[in-house]
């Protein structure tokens, strides 16, 4: 017998914007969910705005851009400015570049008002969405920003110099890496940056640090050696992989190995790292083997996905198999997804990977899984599947969206509406108008109105 129960409050608040969860009844006029969020962005208090920004990160809408630009320019709240930067950065949106450059032009005022960490965030945003603009800014202001004497900002500047290959600053970075009096934090970043810049003159420094006792510096040197990938340093990395005094060094060594040319010796070392007692080392090995597309590692990754004692490792093994993407690897993940004895934590991870990377070849498996979960109360797996389907740009999913609209759980109905809106499925306009006219759930109506606004 089908149970028509309310979704838990936890699930509601995971999905819905501020205030919507408590407004399920009443109201003769419906404001779309997008318009409601824009009003919060323009007029809400700090905590409300940050809450909305957290919720819309994964569902960017062009209509949010202008309100957010206005907010960035008007607010004196460091938290809000940082949250707005994060939204534009994580969605790869260059629309805030002029405002970011203005902030950096007036860097002294920004530093006095918001501190070095904020300036670092602005630089990171520029680097992510417009590297050329970031390089132009730093061509004239690197030294001035460095002179502000904020350790966090200095560390960011050194990191960005490496990411953008700003070789004009190489001498300064070398001097930091070799300076025993510099703080460990900035010295570690300088060592890693020498590796990113592939500075051959850094090998001697890196070898010296590698033989030192400071664990943090040794890890940074190991990472830098990986970036350089000089064959003469491979024995150092393999030795680090056996270091029993610092498990984090072993995990770093796995990452370093990923940048050396593929050899049988490295493949064996990476597979052996999957047996390491430290779970982070096993996770790193899974990730690297996936990135390398190692078909030879499929048998052990299958074992890890199913039986490793740590969830993080099982999750990493699933993602590695998905990345490798052979029929054997994907077929194993499909079977694991359909098996109801598979960990309830892992099945959503598998579903997300299959939908994101392999949907055209696994659609039948996804539909079978939905059928398994359809009648279950508050199935997290079904919610995950429906959410991921709602994020896909594929008009061929219209039958699944239609099915979602008929589910008892209004959150799943909302995912159906969001899929319809994303794919501009105008054939659903009458159905959305029906929801708007007849539903007693005010939140559902807000999403229906937003979809209708976008479709008409």
TrEMBL record:
SMART domains in the record, alphabetically? EZ_HEAT
**Which terms are listed as keywords in the entry?**
Lyase, Signal
Entry protein name:
PBS lyase HEAT domain protein repeat-containing protein
- The question of whether Signal is a record keyword is answered with yes
Q: List the signal peptide residues.
A: 1-26
Under Gene Ontology molecular function, one entry of this record is: oxidoreductase activity
| Source organism of the structure | Winmispira thermophila (strain ATCC 700085 / DSM 6578 / Z-1203)
